[in-house]
Amino acid sequence: xxxxxxxxxxxxxxxxxxxxxxxxxxxxxxxxxxxxxxxxxxxxxxxxxxxxxxxxxxxxxxxxxxxxxxxxxxxxxxxxxxxxxxxxxxxxxxxxxxxxxxxxxxxxxxxxxxxxxxxxxxxxxxxxxxxxxxxxxxxxxxxxxxxxxxxxxxxxxxxxxxxxxxxxxxxxxxxxxxxxxxxxxxxxxxxxxxxxxxxxxxxxxxxxxxxxxxxxxxxxxxxxxxxxxxxxxxxxxxxxxxxxxxxxxxxxxxxxxxxxxxxxxxxxxxxxxxxxxxxxxxxxxxxxxxxxxxxxxxxxxxxxxxxxxxxxxxxxxxxxxxxxxxxxxxxxxxxxxxxxxxxxxxxxxxxxxxxxxxxxxxxxxxxxxxxxxxxxxxxxxxx
Amino acid sequence: xxxxxxxxxxxxxxxxxxxxxxxxxxxxxxxxxxxxxxxxxxxxxxxxxxxxxxxxxxxxxxxxxxxxxxxxxxxxxxxxxxxxxxxxxxxxxxxxxxxxxxxxxxxxxxxxxxxxxxxxxxxxxxxxxxxxxxxxxxxxxxxxxxxxxxxxxxxxxxxxxxxxxxxxxxxxxxxxxxxxx
Lengths: 383, 181
Known about the structure:
- The structure holds two protein chains of two kinds.
- Chain A is an alpha+beta fold.
- Chain A has twelve helices and 16 strands.
- In chain A, the strands form three sheets. Chain A has an eight-stranded antiparallel β-sheet, sandwiched between helices. In chain A, strands 1, 2, 4, 7, 8 and 11 form a six-stranded antiparallel β-sheet that branches. A two-stranded parallel ribbon of chain A has the order 3-12.
- Chain B is mainly α.
- Chain B contains nine helices and no strands.
- Chain B is globular.
- At the A-B interface, helix 1, helix 3, helix 4, helix 5 and strand 4 of A face helix 1, helix 2, helix 3, helix 4 and helix 6 of B.
């Protein structure tokens, strides 16, 4: 009779059926196996004692209230987190950067009705510091109207700048200086355009407003039914050093990726350097002005008075893009790139940053896990 | 016009994807938090880890990914182990230990509570010292996952789980015997 190994004996402690009748009979008659089983049981009982008591919980599911609270907390965070697009790891990373382009990359849809007016065309960027509490309570636009996305964004990897230029239909610029430690091999991708409409609805806003605030927060007549047309044209993403060494060990498989992703939840999945170029955005409206929309939205309870004041303080809302900067994690400062004013956003820990500027009808963003000075040098070298 | 940005954020995540993610969250949150709690011995810290894990998943993967559960489980264990070793968490634990001390002062049976606090600290230390793979197996199994679920999460054959668990428990016991403080 072959002696059961330690693993089989350990499982037998939890699942008596793990050994067949013959093996169980063997255990009764084999002093060596019996001794091993006793030792295994003792260690298992010890582990159960300390680990069972460790969390002082049972195996039950979380209480519904706790679950709802946890879900709300998560929604407050994921509302600001960009979902990846299902491509390879580097493209998924680049998709996060494409968010930058997405934010700035609104352009008019190809066939807009005559009645649409361009109401927003950002020429400059201003940092608006916000607290984490501010970010967590920003109103959800779906409470005020209906969003219809007419296209599904996607991204395509291309061979290089010339193919990217041809697909995106604007001349793509490439950096002529990179820090020595950065891999100089680049990968290029072009995002698709998108076309989205948002229709304000007084009825929907009414239904989503607490009864005691309905009068004070009522949507103005001029906004009810107004349509915002938001479209993006293709943007180009260039990623450097995208071939991150995978954290993989034998038989770890998917969990090794999980390890890496979770450990580097904030920045680890991004390549060391990403450059985004997108045509100048515009947002068009059937008549509602930026002032009207801002005035209405800034009155919503999710917007703190301080944040509302910051945004109102921007004198020319039609051409200035406020960029919300979470003050506990990042800082914003004016920078100059190619002789034009831009905005630099740095991570408070000093490990990364973004520089955004507009030149010749194109929005540029350079983001990386690099010193701000290096990011600026890379930005200056684009041509 | 920051709200233009909000439009993009709101529209680019489809309704169905949101619903699927919420379903996944509600189905797996308890498991994820429980795995982290086995390692951290701290409910609040474990909830923080669970949040972090779901945010990472949301960022990287579709909610209906076939590997969602196993990804979440192993990420919970790894993130909790990293938190255990991290400087900030250490500070937080010291703070929590101080809170534990205050709880002891209020408790009817201080001796019993002191033993419980000491044991929690010892568990964290021991799990932080043993091979991370062993710590992961212990966290998954003692969080209530079956042998098959542990095997699936770790990408190993079901027959290997007993062996891994045996070695992990022996390592844990040895760590306690070596340094019970």
